[in-house]
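Duplicate of #3305? Posting structure anyway:
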């Protein structure tokens, strides 16, 4: 009888531990996967003809399998250098272009950015973003406002 009590107690403890672990993992997996941005450098341009312009840069991390379809525009010229991984960039709802580590892209001012995707299921992509923006302009504007 003692062995059955001991066995039931062990099964109960294992079940409790498993349930706690599953709930914890479930909560962690429910968090939305998002882009991450870390500031790198902001500087006013030194040429007197460009004194109203500044460079704003950040490191963007694109999690594995992330797909961002929030159409937006930047009132600035944007240059992106892929440091690690691969991304797909779609502009004006056209066929996306693939950029891999070591490649750079340019988005003209106010072009609609309609897609960003990391096709890799395991590895995040890292992209250095460089904006050349005039003082007073918006760095990010959604094309379709949130409801």
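Output from current build:
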């Amino acid at each position: 009888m003692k062995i059955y009590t001991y066995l039931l107690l062990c099964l109960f403890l294992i079940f409790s531990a498993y349930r706690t672990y599953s709930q914890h993992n479930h909560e962690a997996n429910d968090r939305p996967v998002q882009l991450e941005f870390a500031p790198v450098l902001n500087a006013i341009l030194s040429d007197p003809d460009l004194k109203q312009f500044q460079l704003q840069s950040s490191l963007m991390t694109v999690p594995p399998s992330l797909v961002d379809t929030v159409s937006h525009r930047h009132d600035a010229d944007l240059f992106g250098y892929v440091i690690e991984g691969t991304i797909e960039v779609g502009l004006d709802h056209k066929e996306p272009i693939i950029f891999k580590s070591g490649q750079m892209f340019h988005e003209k001012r106010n072009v609609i950015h309609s897609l960003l995707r990391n096709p890799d299921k395991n590895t995040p992509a890292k992209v250095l973003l460089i904006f050349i923006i005039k003082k007073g302009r918006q760095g990010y504007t959604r094309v379709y406002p949130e409801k």
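Confirmed duplicate; merging threads. Residues 36-142 form a domain with the Jelly Rolls fold (CATH 2.60.120.10). Confidence is low (pLDDT under 50) at residues 4-28.
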